[in-house]
Amino acid sequence: MTPQQTQSGDYLVLEKDAAEVEDNLMRLVSAHWDYIDRFASQLVARGPLLSSDGQRHMGSVHIITSASLLDAQRFAKEEPYYQANLYSSVTVTRFRNLLRQTMWERAPSVPPEYSTFMLANWPIRSCTAKQIERLQTAGSANRSWVFLGLLLSTDDKCIGIAAAADLKPEAAESKLRELFELSELYSDSIELSRWQRGGRQK
Fold this sequence. Notes:
Alpha-Beta Plaits, 8-stranded antiparallel beta barrel, 8 strands, globular
């Protein structure tokens, strides 16, 4: 194995649903929750991507602390939805947790009306300590961020940001662009999706 494959840390596992899999998703939802629950102590965040009206499952977001990239990939590939071929795509990317907390430590006092997942990408580049510090300070100070992290290449270069905020899409994108301005990191590619905190319904 290469050094990159054995690198411990946090990983963003982003899964997008294949078309017309709703019935199979519901059939396997308990198996999915049982599987993810086994990794509860390693999770920074978890939750589904949803259609804009909140009615349809569109994918899943998991941020997991793993001993290596291979372990994070194994987590993704052994998940029941993946095993049943219900995803059209799965990506596993190193994630630097800028908030240094889990989503449970940033829970709101009341359930939010709307949460947005954001994925921004840019050409590979080095991020300075000052840029990272600015992102950490600004992100930690704003409780609307559920999670916020830099996406990293296998050689620790910055390739984007993944985040979720308890805001509607326009407000969430505005907050993300404020961080870009503050840290002098920019992206013309920002993907916005409705999202909610995951876990077994009680």
